[in-house]
Each structure stands twice: as C-alpha cells, then as structure tokens.
What we know:
- It is a single chain.
- The chain is an all-alpha fold.
- The chain contains 14 helices and two strands.
- Helix 9 runs antiparallel to helix 10.
- The model has no long low-confidence stretch (mean pLDDT 90).
- GO terms for molecular function: lysophospholipid acyltransferase activity; O-acyltransferase activity.
- It is found in: Endoplasmic reticulum membrane.
Amino acid sequence: MSPEEWTYLVVLLISIPIGFLFKKAGPGLKRWGAAAVGLGLTVFTCGPHTLHSLITMLGTWALIQAQPCSCHALALAWTFSYLLFFRALSLLGLPTPTPFTNAVQLLLTLKLVSLASDVQDLHLAQRKEMASGFSKAPTLGLLPHVPSLMETLSYSYCYVGIMTGPFFRYRTYLDWLEQPFPEALPSLRPLLCRAWPAPLFGLLFLLSSHLFPLEAVREDAFYARPLPTRLFYMIPVFFAFRMRFYVAWIAAECGCIAAGFGAYPVAAKARAGGGPTLQCPPPSSLEKAAALEYDYETIRNIDCYNTDFCMRVREGMRYWNMTVQWWLAQYIYKSAPASSYVLR
C-alpha cells in the first residue's frame, strides 16, 4: 500500500470512534465540532491547497445569495469550471495539489451543487405558496431556510465523508444535527453488520495486489508477453481495484453509522443519497423513538454482492457509488433539457 492509501485508511478508521463521540452531542457541538475535525483533516492532508475548497465554497455561497431562483445552473457552471481549472494547475505552471485535495474538491463539488439546487427548490416553493395564498406545501426534503455563510462552511467541511464519501444532502446534515433522541438510534449492531466483510476484502486486496501488482503494466517486459496474458491481467487488477474501494466505502459508512448520521425510520423508505421518500413524524418521546426500526440506507454507498454478481452493466452501475449515482440522476439527468437526448 502507498503512503496515500495508508493515510486514507487511518482517516477512515479514526472517524469511527469520533462518530461515537459526536452521536449524543447537541446540535451546536455537532455542527462546529464536526466542521473543526473536517477542516483540521483537510488542512493536515492538503496544506495550503485547502484554499481551493474555500474559494469554491465562497463562490457558490455568493451565487446562492445573489440568484437564489437560478443558482443551480450557476453553481453547476462555477464548481465544474473551477474543477477544470483545478485539474489544469500543473499545465499552467502552478503547484500541483495533493491527491487528498483532489478528493476533497470532488466531494465538495457534489455537495455545493446539491445545496444550490435545494435552495432553488426552496425559493420556487416559497413563490408557489405566495401565489396560492400562502397555502402550506409539502415539505419533504425541502430546506427550512437558506443557509448562512457559516452554516454553508460547516456543511462543506463536516468530517463525515469529506474525502471518500458518501455524498449527503444539506437536508440529511440538518436532520443529523436536529435528531430529537440520538441515544435511541442503533449504532454498534448496524456497524458490526456492515463492517464484517471489510477485513476479508482487505486481505483479498493485499493478496491480489501482491500477486498481480499494478506497477507491472508500466514495465516494458509486460508488453513482451502474449496478448491473452495481458488481457487476463486486467481481471486481477480490476479485482484489486474493487476490493480497495469496498474497504474504503464500508469504512466510510461505518463512520456515519457510529455517529448516527443518516439514520431514518425504515418506514421513511430512505434512498441512498436522497434520504427519506415518505414523511414520518418525529417521535415525541424517548420510548417511542427506541421502539422504531431504523436503517442507514441514506448513506449506503456500495452494494458489494450485487456489484460483483449482477447480470448487466447497468445494474452494476446502480449498486456502485450509490450516493453519487443518485446525485447524477437528481441534479444532472433530471435538469437536462428534455429534448436533448444526447445531453441527458
């Protein structure tokens, strides 16, 4: 394993005990404590390149404040334009960011585009309420208000999934901060149920990467081998690639579960990335909260079994990086012009 991979692993493992500490904390400590941890990890791993994420966040917040009725498209153009500039830094003769900066920037882009789209939906819902005589519209998934600069900052640098995902909406983040009875949420048992395959996947990754190292394909001797041998080599290399991501994403999900992040009643039928699809009233007492059955589907990022054993590529994509697949469907595909088949 490379030094970067060890750093990722340490960050993921540290997030699990940190999650247990934050689970029962109040909203203020959750918000600013999680942001402080995330910002500290970002500065530690990215150094001065942290400035890129800060510029992206400030630019998006300014667009949201200036044009709330059309900030989705503006934020999408701004964040991806800056991402293009970020990827071209070495070509422009500027200092090349660390791999950790790249990971933070990618996740932050997803979060900020999502935030801008949700603010735009809130603005449109408020306009509809005014046009219909202030009749109350359905509030499932809607934000209660436009986030302030500091609230946007805390969401952007929340340590949960800051480098590896899973992606989560600002609404999911708010629900975590405002959980009425966090002590009633199950953590240890769901965490153990989710974590048990990770050691096996880790061993398979180490074994396959040792027997079939990726570095071998960069040597001239590799291309002297017969074509069937070179084609076969793709199988164990891709196998090691999947095992590495399985371990990382399972560990990231365990960090969320430890904090009670993304926990919703099963009756809410939460979707990966999107959160609840059905309205469930919050429990009025600790006893009622403890009697509910919860799941962590909102932060589920990988279905290992279906990814490996599905019959079609389309199904495999659905079970791989699930929160990002939801982000693409919600904020890109649905927003594309209906007549533009190629764009969609």
